[in-house]
Amino acid sequence: MSLTMTTPTDREIVLTRTFAASRRLVFDAYTRPELLTQWYGARGWHLVGCDFELREGGRYRFESRGPAGETMVQAGTVQLVEAPARLVLTERFEEQSYPGETLITHEFSERGGRTTVTTTVLYATPDGRDAVLRYPMARGVGEAGDRLEQLISEVQRGTVMNWTLEVVMVPVSDVDRSKAFYADQLGFHVDHDTRVSDAVRVVQLTPPGSGCSIVISKGLGEGMAPGSLKGVQLVVADIHKARGQLLERGVEVGEVTKLGENPVPGGHELDNVGFVFFDDPDGNSWAVQQISSRA
User: For domain 167-290, which CATH number applies: 3.90.550.10, 3.10.180.10, 3.40.50.720, 3.40.190.10?
Assistant: First the structure.
């Protein structure tokens, strides 16, 4: 079903579209970053940054990139979650030309295996709404909906390809020394330590709570010089607590660094700006970032 758009009041725009899917699937497509990045935006636009904390009081931030390399950032807070029936968000664009904060209400209604999404966009002022109406809003939202229809079809057919990062090779000079560092000092779990032959040994370790592991080895990955891996990143909920634990375990770690601020409505800032950095015994460098919604 194609998009319909109405303007019931001088501050509102109402957008309606029906999808051939359960409302649970459609709700997930509106709230899960791994799905949002596959459909959100007009043709030629793609999400290159997508943080979404799905809880009342949670925050989100979308960074989109257009066909000519232009960027657009929108962010806000989650006001209400009634999954999978209703979702209420605030919204403000980084380069917004109209005043105030916008309130967006998504309502998901299912009947006969089809879900109708009714989105009410309430602007702070009539001038703000009129400014948006001068943009090709209906075309952009319609094209995004077309992309969502395609994604839903792929999900239902089971043809969506998931790419899961499994292992990162960490080049080291001394397997025993590195195993002690990662297991004893960092607290990584030793999944296995296998001696394939006198010349080949493989040790796989996984950070607590991670779906991805690292491998240190003898006889594998000789094309990578020990210490040449830079910028591997870990995510934690509390950067100060993580730094304290690293120091207690004898890891030389830097001070907490903020690489910029991302203000959101209400005077807060996103919590994904705190970093600390450390090296392993060979000089392979690691970053630890605080993102409370994903840790």
Answer: 3.10.180.10
d(CA 166, CA 42): 32
Per-residue model confidence (pLDDT) at position 57: 92
CA-CA distance, 104 to 111, in Å (whole number)?
A: 23
**pLDDT tens digits for range 201-252:** 999 999 988 878 999 998 776 678 999 999 899 988 888 999 999 999 999 9
User: Contact, 54 vs 31, CB < 8 A?
Assistant: yes
Query: Which pLDDT belongs to residue 269?
Result: 42
Structure tokens at 207: 């950070």
Distance separating alpha carbons of residues 198 and 212, to the nearest angstrom? 27
Q: Please report the pLDDT score of residue 267 as a whole number.
A: 39
Q: Domain residue spans in the chain?
A: 4-157, 167-290
The half-sphere exposure of 176 on its side-chain side, counting CA atoms within 13 A, is 0
Beta pairing, strands 257-258 & 46-52: unpaired
Residue reference for tokens 């990955």: 221
Residue 211 DSSP symbol: S
- Answering whether pTM is above 0.90, one says no
99 touches 124 (CB < 8 A)? yes
**Looking at domain 4-157, what is its CATH homologous superfamily?**
START domain (3.30.530.20)
Per the structure block, which two tokens stand in for 273? 């700006």
- Asked if 55 and 77 count as a contact pair (C-beta separation under 8 A), the reply is no
